Amino acid sequence: MILLSVVLLLIASYTSTLHAWWDQRGDIQSTRAEIVMKKQQIAALEDQKARWDDPAYVKQQAKQRFGWVTPGEVGYRVIGSDGTVKGDVPTLDAPPQAVTTQWYDKLWGSVKESGKTPKPTRPTTDPNKVLKSK
User: Which one, of 60, 61, 66, 62, lies nearest residue 89 by Cα?
Assistant: First the structure.
């Protein structure tokens, strides 16, 4: 009987340790996979950066993205009967519109809000019913 309880105690203590080891092993494997993925992303970004050092790639991107032509070339656009350009039309993305709020605008906004009278809130439950039920 004592031997059985000692064995059960040892199994219980080793089970929690084994569970923690198994969880940590899973975390290590997921972290290693994430590291491999990040290294691949870094390699792809370094490759892309190296391509931008090549003047031929820069010219090709300028022609493709902006529709530029080099001196001596003639650029053509096919315009449909409705007046719209047919085919791939290079477009520039709009620059990101950053919403900038200056500190003094925030300060003045808080001053305006503090001057307002607070709206009365309705209780979600009837306080009389709560008191009666106790």
Answer: 66
